[in-house]
Amino acid sequence: MITVHQLEVRVGARLLMENVSFRVGPGDKVGLVGRNGAGKTTLLRALLADAPGQPECPGDRDAGKVRWGHEVSVGYFPQDQTGLIDKGTTVVEWLHRFDPDASRQEIHGLLGQMLFSGEEGLKPTDALSGGETARLLFCRIMLQKPNVLVLDEPTNHLDLDSIHWLEQFLLRYEGTLIVISHDRHFLNQVCTHTADIDYQTIITYTGGYDEMVLAKTQIRSRVESENAQREKKIAQLM
Predict the structure, then answer these.
(1) With contact defined as beta carbons under 8 Å apart, do 108 and 142 qualify?
(2) Which element (helix H / strand E) includes 215?
(3) What does pTM read for this prediction?
(4) Do residues 101 and 79 make contact, with C-beta atoms less than 8 angstroms apart?
(5) How is residue 14 annotated by DSSP?
(6) Which of 208, 203, 160, 169 minimizes the C-alpha distance to 77?
(7) CA distances, 1 to each of 68, 130, 148, 178 (Å)
(8) How many CA atoms lie within 13 A of 67 on its CB side?
(9) pLDDT at 110 over 90
(10) pLDDT tens for residues 173-223?
């Protein structure tokens, strides 16, 4: 579905990652994690630079190749949602402008799923809260019916009910997912793999966030044990 080969990404003179290669297969749900400043959002934008139908995401990379599979359609949820929803209209009308072929019944059904109840579909877009803006953008993505979802911090402005709904939606979703999140529980719930950005490279682990932490701890313990044995042998030889 997505193949990355020897990717190199910089921000100015700062090297974020180099010689990064990995593959995301059909149906994989990958959580992208790493410390603040490791380059998670920058990596997403570098991947999306070559994704079909993503002219709104001008990403870049310094070296390497990114290949997307055939007949891929991508739904992108950015961390910064400023200016993505037009003012001076209502929730229903904004969705209808985006997809004129969608029926009112379909639109109201989606809004109901995203916890816009009753007359909230008539709410002015100028009056939307951060959480309502996020939920409305999810409605637009759902209308697109993409087979790949790329989500950058999707739970940031959502309340607990909305986060629970999103978890259940992603568990049922049959497409491919790449998601950045600092919500450990959310990652454990929805991810089949966890890709960790560390020391300018990426290592992908099977399972959610906690399984990744356990695997890293086991690897570190094994390396420390091997180093201790090596030092002991050197001392004996000396």
Answers:
(1) no
(2) helix 209-237
(3) 0.86
(4) no
(5) E
(6) 169
(7) 6, 32, 9, 12
(8) 10
(9) no
(10) 999 999 999 999 999 999 999 999 988 889 999 999 999 999 888 877 777
